[in-house]
Amino acid sequence: MAEKIFTKAELAKFDGKNGNKAYVAIDGAVYDVTNIPQWAEGQHHGHVAGQDLSEAITQAPHKKSVLQKLTVVGKYSAE
């Protein structure tokens, strides 16, 4: 099965609201944060699911250390 490629518009649909799954893109990979309690309702410390958070994660205290715990669901293409 081919790996799913998410465009910016497709990723935006996964905002964690109204029963949608919550996905975030970081460095070209798309991660599922749906069942992460800190991402309830698709929000985490002012950030919103359905977006590319590559830049934002560099400012987080945990940096990228949390990514290894998440499931990768595809790749991100900003086009």
TrEMBL record:
SMART domains: Cyt-b5 (SM01117). Pfam families: Cyt-b5 (PF00173). This is Cytochrome B5. It comes from Loigolactobacillus backii.
